[in-house]
Amino acid sequence: MKLRRSLLRECARLALEQRGFTVEPVRGSGILPGARLRAKKGSVTRKVAVRTSLDREVGLTRNSDGDWSTIPRMNEVLVAVPSVDDRGSAEILSFAPKVLIRAFDAALKARRDENPDFKIKSPIFITLDDVVRGGDPSEPALKAMSQWSTLVPLTSVPGPHFSQNESETEFFDRVKREFAERYGFDPSKVTVKFSVAS
To answer: Which of 72, 90, 168, 172 could serve as 11's disulfide partner, Cβ 3.0–4.6 Å?
Structure first.
């Protein structure tokens, strides 16, 4: 079974719940389900962004003004990736936004030093794990900068349940979301058209 990013986002939500938070999704145009969360514990409410990666690299993009998208407005960033130690689990890592921004500012500077024409819309990727070249780590591991991490079994996330009462609009919205997620598009840019061969 192919590991899906939606499953990783669900594991991130479960990790917060296991830490005693009540979690609800934040919905909005262009936001994938589970990519923004509101986590509450007592009188504390936190805005959480969830990033997923199937290859254990974290990517961020910038706005047209050059600032990092989304992250500066969050209280916490969760990165959900396949575990390297337990194939049946997702590894969830928590980062303070300022720590991520410092790491990505340094990576962006290095990229611009290599290529002064580096495009503002091009994403920056940093690996979570040590990169070893010539026997020594050549880049600091982002994982070492996390506030906490935990493993969440993939089987702890219930499988998809499709309601027989799903309306036509709900069906089309779900198909658009799943298509966008699979191929990395903004769901608001996807249109659905079915045809039946006679």
So the answer is: 90
